[in-house]
Amino acid sequence: MHPTEHFKYCPRCAAPRAAKNSGEMPFVCARCGFTYYFNPAVAAAAFIFDSEGRVLLIRRAKNPAAGKLGVPGGFIDYGESAEDGMRREVREEVGLEIDRIQFLVSFPNQYQYREVTYPVVDLYFTADAVRPRSARPLDAVAGIEWRFPIDVPDEECAFDSMRVALASFLNLNDPHE
């Protein structure tokens, strides 16, 4: 269910949402005029490389996409830059410090959590692991794997946005050149 569908009443004055406005964006209260925009959440993730050119992949421990491959990352908190949020998420998920961060690509995503489907803009970066051997599975990570990017099958990717980001990386770094 899209977040707009959860607004049955105005959060300011508690007036019932008009039937004709159900699901519209932005939410505008017919009684008090309160306006709420349903903007997407922002997430940042990194293709983190070791000195051999392998990328760190995580095996997701929780839904959505439990058991599938992802890259370390997550939602950006208020007041954080995408880079700072990504660094925090990388530390929380695999215990690594990273450097040489470069933006790669962004792509829209849908993140299903409980009964809500959140619209998300995923920002993907590349980075180098400072001490790759210290990587370990931590928060919501069932396991870690180091693979060459060309060896990551689409069907194992947890999210469509990751497939797009991986394809973008491979297009920019064609292993056949």
UniProtKB/TrEMBL annotation:
Domain spans labelled Nudix hydrolase: 39-170
Protein keywords: Hydrolase, Magnesium
The protein's required cofactors: Mg(2+)
SUPFAM superfamilies per record: Nudix
PROSITE patterns, per the entry: NUDIX, NUDIX_BOX
Pfam families linked: NUDIX
InterPro entries registered for this protein in UniProt: Nudix_hydrolase, NUDIX_hydrolase-like_dom_sf, NUDIX_hydrolase_CS, NUDIX_hydrolase_dom
Taxonomic superkingdom: Bacteria
Family statement: Belongs to the Nudix hydrolase family.
Protein known as: Nudix hydrolase family protein
Organism in which the protein naturally occurs: Frigoriglobus tundricola
